[in-house]
Amino acid sequence: MPALQSLLKSDGAALPPKQSVSNILLAGIGGFVAIAVLAYLAQNLEAVLVLGSFGASCVLVFGFPDAPFSQPRNVVAGHLLSSFVGLLFLTLCGPTWWSVALAVGTAIALMIATRTVHPPAGSNPVIVFLTQPAWDFLLFPTLTGALLLVVVAALYNNLMRKTNYPKYW
Fold this sequence. Notes:
Elements: H1 2-7, H2 21-45, H3 52-63, H4 72-93, H5 97-113, H6 124-131, H7 139-160
Helix pairs in contact: 2-3, 2-7, 3-7, 4-5, 4-6, 4-7, 5-6
């Protein structure tokens, strides 16, 4: 057991500071607004615009809008790149345990290499393997949904917060 304990040992760093009640409420309401807009448009346009990983994207763009992972470039390119990699591996290798693992690892490496890391997008290859969509999945919901999410985040964050969103494009 001593080996396991050493593997699970932390640095003992302090927890991050608590956020203010107003920031907590703004983040929660922002996530609600963004997913409501996407779901409403999807229902009325009869198009798929919601992706499971977009809920996690909302945590970043509304809870931590200044973070590099939350910037539009990262949100859009991270989702698009990761979905593309998932579809590519699904097409070339089939729905196997090792090809989904390879797709996730490749998506992570490519996001880091292209400076477009968006952690929620790391789940897109898994979503692709679970749902096995056609290639139009890149357009609907991935690209269109991510772009709409960024537009809602920009409007909401710039109306409700004192700092500008995004920090860069």
